[in-house]
Write a structure and sequence with these properties.
The complex is a heterodimer of chains A (633) and B (109). Chain A has 633 residues and is mainly alpha-helical. Chain A is 71% helix and 3% strand. In chain A, helix 15 packs antiparallel against helix 20. Chain B contains four helices and no strands. In chain B, helix 2 packs antiparallel against helix 3 and helix 3 runs antiparallel to helix 4. The chains are: A mainly alpha (633), B mainly alpha (109).
């Protein structure tokens, strides 16, 4: 038994603050004054960020790598004992800091962004619940606590995507997100059940200790990891369950930032990284993850090329970046995946909040074909957006460079084809991000009658903080090539078992980086030529397009394919069951049972005539019959 | 006390049983077929007392006084029951101007 670290029990405060905030803003939502909720909610998340920071230092000074805080015994039946416990280790602390840190900035930003919404108080209640669920997810010490958070996050995403529920299309998007997540959750539940059957426990530490006794490639471990992967694919929006994420843009922009950057989609990555010991035992699953991740990264990036909605572009870029994280996980470089989660949280939150600022300024307009020339009107937003674009494109020394380069070099170690494909995806990412940047901020203003203005301070200050993080976040993990010591990866080592890195020689690495930089430079130049010098503007909706652009513009018809393959047949099946089975078989049978009972009742009530002699006679006859029966038998 | 017991034992036990069954049957028939509520109550008493008679007889033959004690209890209960029964009869007479139980047939579906 390891010695208890003093003050580590503070950990329960971390999820407690957002929960408290949810209860206050949720229950008193009618009584609070306009925007009071925002201040309470932001303060709560900020407080849990502070506690997380304190925990970070407590754990650091204690010299131990992890601590389990058991709040109470949750399920205790026979031999099964599942405590409601939190696990504080380097991985969960990293995630807690991201969730609460970036989450707090998004909350503060929302005070400004949602200022004019009439349901602003419920908005903040739901945001707090979202943060709370995500914290449960990353802090849980067993798969069941993780699962509560997992489902809570799913619920909150449904509520927040459908926040403006008066628009039926938004409701549809919310339902889609929920159903897609449920498909993944089914796999996840089955995975947990199988885990329990195999290991007789769901606690991380006990499972991982027992897993060491298994051979690599044991079928049961492969099955478990595949089932858990289904859950992760649903939550982290990978092929084939990624279509909900772009539709999730229906929610208010800060929600998109929260879903895409700090919470929700990173859950799948976190869960796989947390189960790294199991995944290391299943090489087959890792290969599946590589294929899924790479396919998602490239297909989503291709779709991003032709989107004209500012948020849709960002959504597909998230899907694509998540693909890179999956690629890293599949390569066994879990810490690289989590590092990309971290930097991605910074620059993607920045991108979304910047986009929100633009949308705010344009009075709700989201079509990038109608924007343009905002650079001079909104210098601060422009600057932060530029930083985020450079970061996501992987330009040194911005944070995205370090994390993406780490993944690319891991891909190179694995195989050169993988590297070329991943690099191709990165170049496409760079192109569509600069396309977005140029279309929105350069050239002439194309929307007549709009008067863009810089957003209020409550919105720009979070942008500035995030841009600082986006610039310097990469320095957390400076590879040895640049004289660093990969602090972040080393820090995670105690919690996440990455495969042993084969260090590339420095000359190869420099070659790779220089090569990719030249290519990135060419792409940026090409984008500049197209969208700034020639001021090319994407075609309007009705205009004819070449076959390939049409395919991309329509997102490879994946949504239509799902409709044809799943929705329609399911609809037909439901119709069949309704018309044939329900209406002609089940309904009449149930009705007949009721009618028969009523008819028998009508007959039997004749016996009840109120004549006392008859009752007495019946009673005596009954007793006599009874006696005779006893005597005979 | 001794004399009573020996006096009871002068008559064979079968005779008591036959008498008691006869009385019980008469009482039961009366309860079933009479319409006058007072007659029904009387027949009920008859059934009670046939049982009492049998209890007393067995008690004497077995030299066990508890049977006779039990008879006293039954008498007390019967007295209480008659008190209630007769008051119901009085109320019935006041309300329907009759003691015919076939008039009391309104409690039905």
């Amino acid at each position: 038994m390891v010695e208890q670290i003093p003050n580590i029990n503070l950990a329960w405060l971390v999820p407690a603050f957002p929960l408290l905030g949810f209860l206050i803003t949720g229950l008193a939502n009618k009584r609070l004054k306009h925007n009071q909720a925002g201040i309470i909610a932001s303060a709560m998340v900020l407080l849990s960020f502070l506690v997380s920071v304190i925990l970070f230092f407590i754990l650091r000074s204690s010299g131990q790598n992890e601590a389990t805080i058991t709040l109470f015994s949750w399920i205790s039946i026979g031999g099964m004992n599942i405590p409601f416990a939190f696990l504080i280790d380097h991985l969960s602390l990293t995630m807690m800091l991201i969730v609460t840190g970036v989450g707090a900035l998004i909350h503060i930003y929302s005070i400004g962004y949602m200022h004019d919404d009439e349901r602003v108080n419920s908005f903040f209640a739901q945001m707090n619940l979202f943060t709370f669920s995500m914290l449960l997810l990353v802090m849980g010490a067993n798969y069941l606590v993780l699962f509560i958070g997992w489902e809570g996050v799913g619920l909150c995403s449904y509520l927040l995507i459908g926040f403006w529920f008066k628009n039926p299309a938004y409701n549809y998007a919310a339902r889609k997100a929920f159903v897609m997540n449920r498909i993944g959750d089914l796999g996840f539940i089955l995975g947990i059940i199988l885990l329990f059957f195999t290991f007789k426990t769901v606690t991380f530490s006990e499972i991982f200790a027992q897993a060491l006794g298994f051979q690599a490639g044991a079928p049961v471990i492969t099955l478990i990891t595949l089932l858990l992967l289904v859950g992760a694919v649903g939550k982290s929006a990978q092929i084939p369950l990624f279509t909900w994420l772009p539709d999730a843009m229906a929610g208010p922009t800060p929600v998109s930032a929260l879903i895409h950057a700090a919470t929700m989609v990173t859950a799948g990555i976190y869960m796989i990284a947390r189960s790294s010991i199991l995944y290391n035992l299943a090489p087959f699953t890792l290969n599946v993850i590589i294929v899924i991740g790479l396919a998602t990264a490239i297909i989503a990036a291709l779709i991003g090329l032709k989107q004209n909605d500012i948020k849709k572009v960002l959504a597909y870029s998230t899907v694509s970046q998540l693909g890179y994280m999956f690629l890293a996980l599949g390569l066994g470089a879990y810490s690289a995946g989590v590092f990309h989660v971290t930097t991605h949280a910074f620059f993607k939150a920045l991108l979304f909040l910047g986009a929100g600022s633009v949308i705010h300024a344009m009075g709700g307009e989201q079509d990038i074909r109608k924007m343009g020339g905002l650079r001079k009107k909104m210098p601060l937003t422009y600057f932060t957006f530029l930083v985020a674009t450079l970061a996501i494109s992987g330009i040194p020394p911005f944070s995205g460079f370090f994390s993406k380069d780490l993944i690319l070099s891991k891909a190179f170690e694995h195989s050169i084809i993988l590297y070329i494909l991943a690099l191709g995806g990165a170049l496409i990412t760079c192109f569509y991000m600069f396309r977005l940047l140029y279309l929105v901020f350069f050239g002439e203003q194309r929307l007549a009658g709009a008067h863009p203005h810089e957003s209020p301070k409550v919105m720009t200050i979070p942008l500035l903080i995030l841009s600082v993080l986006s610039i310097f976040g990469g320095f957390l993990n400076i590879p040895s090539l640049f004289g660093g010591d990969s602090k972040f990866s080393t820090y995670l080592q105690s919690a996440v078992v990455s495969k042993a890195p084969e260090e590339l020689s420095h000359s190869t690495e420099i070659g790779l980086i220089l090569g990719s930089l030249v290519l990135l430079g060419l792409v940026i130049f090409f984008a500049y030529r197209t969208f700034v010098s020639k001021s090319f503007i994407p075609a309007k909706d009705g205009e004819p397009m070449s076959f390939f652009s049409k395919l991309i513009y329509n997102k490879f018809y994946i949504d239509e394919m799902y409709t044809a393959v799943f929705e329609k047949p399911f609809g037909y099946l439901s119709d069949f069951f309704y018309n044939k089975v329900e209406n002609t078989v089940l309904d009449p049978v149930v009705d007949e049972i009721g009618f028969t009972t009523a008819r028998v009742g009508t007959l039997l009530r004749k016996l009840q005539q109120g004549n006392m002699s008859f009752y007495l006679f019946a009673m005596v006859a009954g007793i006599l019959l009874f006696i005779i029966f006893i005597l005979i038998v | 006390m001794k004399e009573i017991t020996s006096a009871i034992q002068l008559i064979p036990l079968q005779h008591y049983i036959i008498l008691s069954v006869t009385l019980f049957s008469i009482g039961m028939m009366g309860v079933l077929f009479r319409r006058n509520i007072i007659a029904i109550l009387m027949c009920l008493e008859l059934m009670f007392n046939s049982a009492n008679l049998l209890l007393a007889a067995f008690s004497a033959y077995h030299s066990d006084p508890s049977g006779q004690v039990f008879v006293f209890f039954i008498m007390i209960v019967a007295a209480a029951e008659v008190a209630v029964g007769l008051s119901i009869v009085v109320m019935m007479k006041r309300n329907v101007e009759s003691v015919d139980i076939n008039l009391l047939n309104r409690l039905k579906w």
